[in-house]
Every structure is written in structure tokens, then in C-alpha cells.
Amino acid sequence: MQALLSFDRAPPFAAPLRFFITAPLFALLAGVLLLVEGPGVLASRWTPAALAATHLITVGFMLHVMLGALVQILPVVAGANVARPLLVATVVHGGLVLGTLALVAGFLAAAPGFFLAAAAVLAGTALVFLASAGTALFGVPTTSPTIGGLKLAFIALAVVVGLGVTLVLALALGWSLPLVDLVDLHAGWGLGAWAGILLASLAYVVVPMFQLTPGYPARPSWWFPWALFAVLVLWSLAVAGAAPLLVRAAEALAALAGMAFAAFTLNLQRQRRRARADATYRLWQVGLASMLLALAMLLAVALHPEFAEWRGWTPLFGILVAVGGYMSLILGMLYKIVPFLSWLHLQNLGKGRVPAPNMSKILSESAAMRQTASHVVALAGLVAAAVAPAWFARPAGLALVVASGWLFANFGLAYWRFRRHAREMACLAQP
Amino acid sequence: MSTIRSFMTEDHRHCDDLFAEAEQAIAQKNLGAAVAAFEHFRNAVLAHFDSEEKTLFPTFEAKTGITMGPTQVMRMEHVQMRALMDDAAEALKAGDADGYLGHAETLLIMMQQHNMKEENVLYPMCDQHLAGETPELLARLETELAEA
């Protein structure tokens, strides 16, 4: 009831937008790193440059967009209003920018000071987010699979950050911990539970909404987040209990669950009633196909662990999951969300007296399509680089710089247009 | 027994179908068919808005005493969607397919997020508070939508 009465208390546009505009710059930095360092970045998952590049994409790009988007959509999809959204967004955004840079500097310079700073800032940022957005979310009853999934995802985020901070402190202070196991858990909870459950919970809403597809079936929608969460708990227990067969079984289950979801979503998209194949649709096709390939690799390595001995295995898996999977799916959503929010806020500014420019006047479909093409080229380059780093690492780095710079330009230009229209409308709307 | 939520949600899906038909016609570059399909869609949406604004919302407001809450927000969003439909229809009549697609995309997302709020929040509240009069209310809504 409380949530209902404040139904349309959408946060100011500045709250989510800052995240969407700075996120591409971190992907661009990952491209620069690959361009400068070359094949060394992909030599193994443990090189400082590989760890830095991974976190530029997962924290700098993915987490950045996810937290910014959540401030915006929690009121809409869950009726959960974050108190003081602009203040929360400012603190979380600032913390993520500084924390990510400190973390990357820590990896590249192997400097304990940077690690300690990153641990403090990122832990503090996550606490602020979980305390404010989490309070709002856990305050609403679980009346839809989306709300239930989001709650589980928030718990998973606390686990990911907790493990990440522990690892960074271990590196900075030289604690003797089983680092490899903890890194696996950290990655599994991050990419599987937090990002995976968040993605599924939002897909329930946005896939039918943007593409006019049939909805996800109700009962499996309730179960899927719980199933994924349970598999991650099982897997963690297996790692903690040093039970390698159980670890492999949990990996296979996680892969099968993810593949079922991706295949089901691809099939839903096939039944869409929209006539045009727009950038959002294309990006989701690429994202889901890439996810399927990555999860097939996870299933294969669960059955035949010796596959992972190939140097390129983990880099290829990571590229397919993070850049091919999550980044494509996130881009697909942002190409609808950014222009729609611009329109909505301009509409409110005009108070019905001055018409707002429609979505395509803010960010055109052709601009989105061209950047999408550059993203696919970057993805292909990165996949080639994982296989043959000596040949393709630097060209792939360049392609990622181009695609990310283009994305930044697309969102930056959309923001510039929004500002220009807002100024014009403020003058015209004067009574 | 049918609920307000299921009945009105079904009408949302019906409007979605008509929207898709207009878009299909544009994709096949059949402007005449697109104009007709869009008018069909617009009439269905306007009938839906009318049945809410004249029958469902006032009944809810009278029963609960909540007049400045969700129903007020829904009315404001109806105003925005009426304007978007006017813009889209005008672009279509002028033969401006790109202009139409820009307005239609905006309209679609506006409409979907509006429907989501009604289906997940407002209609369940209606079902909860108007349980006593649901059969008569549904009969009235059905007649109003059928007449349109």
C-alpha cells in the first residue's frame, strides 16, 4: 500500500544516467589495456593485466550499469522506492568509480596501498547500496517472481563483495588463504548468482515488454532463481568440503540451468510479435547465443576437467560470458531504457504543454545498430584473441576501444540532446 | 470465476495484438493497411481507457476513498498515451514511416510499463477491495468494451 501511493516517484534522471555514461569508459580502459599490453593479458587468468581487464569489464562496466539501473527500476518493477535516490546514486557512483580504479591500480602495480583503498571503498559502496536499495526491496512483499529473484540477487551481491574484499585483503596483507578456491567462488557467485539471477528476474519483465513475446511461464519463473541460488550454495559447500566430484556435479547443474534459461528465452524471442529486428533484439540474440556457448564449455569442463588445461580455456570462457553474454544483454536493455527515460523526463518537464521529442530523436535506431555492429566485431576479435593471442590481442583491444568509445558517444550525445531539449522546454513551459 | 485482473489484462493483450498488426503492415510497406490497423488499435485503447476512467477507477475511488493515489497516476499516463497516439496517427497519415516508428516505439514502452503497474498493483487492489461487486462490475466493463 505504502509503495502504491508513491507509485510514480521516479528518481531524477541524473540518478541512473551517470552510471550509464561512465560505464563504457571502463570497457574502453579494458580495450586500452589489451592494446598496450598485448598477448600477455590473455596468457593466463592469473596475470595482473588479466585480473585488471576482467574487473574493468565486470565491476567497471557490468556492476556499474546494474546498480545504476536498479535505482531506477526498483520503484517500477517492485514498487520499492529507494529513499533519497539522488544521494544514494551519487555516493554509489563515486564509490564505484574510485573503487574500480584503485582495484585495477592494485592489480597492475601490485601495490598493497591500492588494494586496501579498493577494499575499503568498494565494501563501503556495496554497504550503502545494500542498506538503501536493500531496505526498500526487502520492505515490499514478494508478489512476483521478479521481486523474489531480486531479493536473492541482493543476497548474492553481498556474498560476491564479501569474498572479493576478503581476497583483496589477503593479497594486500599476505594472508595465507586457499586463493584459487576463493577466486572460483567469487567468480561463481558474481557471474552465476548475482548477475545470473538479476538478469533472469529482469528478463521476466523486459523480454515480453520490449519484444511483445509471450510471457515466461509462472511456476518455473518462481523456481529458477531459487534453483540457481541452491546450486551455488551446493557448489560452495562442495568447494569448502573439498569434494571434487560434487564440485563438478554442481558446475554441470549450473550450466544446465543457465542453458535452459537461455534456450527458453531465445525461443520466446522467436515468437515475438514485433515486425522489426531492432538493436535490442539483435543484442539479445548475440548475448544468449554467447551465453549458451560459454555454458556448454562449463558443462564440458565439468565432465572432462582436463579441458581446462588448455591456456585459452578460461580467457575464452570469460570473454563469452562477460563481453558476449552480459555486456550484449545489458546494451540491449540500455538502448531502450536511455531514450525512453529521456522522453519520460522531458514529458514531465513540458507539463503536457510542450511536446517531448520521441525516443528516436534522442537516440536513433541507426546509431544503436551501428554501435551494435562494432560491439559484435570487438567480441569476434576477443574470441580470436583468446585462441591466438599473439595475432589478435592488439587488434581486439583496438576493436574494444572503438566499440566502447562509440557507446560512450551514443549515450553522451543522447544526454546532450536531452539537456538541450530540457533547456528549451524550461523556457517554453513558463506560464 | 474471472477476476478484474485477468479480464483487464486480457484486454491489454488484445491491444498489444492490434499494435503488432500496425507494425507488421508498416514493415510490409503497406501504408494504407497500417493506417487502418493503427486506427483499430487506437479505438481499442481509447475504449479501454474510457472503461477505466468512467467505471473501474470511480468505483475503486468511491469504495476506498483513495482519489489521489494510483488511479490519479494512471489517468495522467492515459493523457500521455493519448498524445503519443495522436502524434503516431498524424505521422502515419502524412506518410512519414520513420516518424511513426519513433512515436510508436515510445508509445509501446510507455504502454507496457503502464500495463505492468496496473496488472501487478492496481488490478489486484481492485480485486481485493471490490470483491463484493466484481460480477456486476465485470459485466459492465464487458459491455463497455464490446460496444467500442
Order of helices and strands of chain B: HHHHH
Rg of chain A from C-alpha positions? 21 Å
Work out the largest interface and the residue count of each chain. Answer: A-B, 32 and 37 residues
Distance between the termini of chain A: 35 Å
| Average pLDDT, all residues of chain A | 93
Count of distinct structural domains of chain B = 1
The largest pleated sheet of chain A is described as: none
- How much of the polypeptide of chain B forms β-strand, as a percent range? under 5%
Number of H/I helices of chain A = 14
In which range does the helix fraction of chain A lie? over 70%
Class inferred from helices and paired strands of chain B: mainly alpha
Q: What would the principal axes of the Cα set say about the shape of chain A?
A: globular
- What is the global morphology of chain B? elongated
Q: What would CATH call the architecture of chain A?
A: Up-down Bundle
The helical percent of chain B reads over 70%
Structural class of chain A: mainly alpha
CATH C-level class of chain B: Mainly Alpha
Quickly count the domains of chain A: 1
Unreliable stretches covering 5 or more consecutive residues of chain A: 1-7
Indicate the low-confidence ranges of chain B by residue numbers. none
Order of helices and strands of chain A: HHHHHHHHHHHHHH
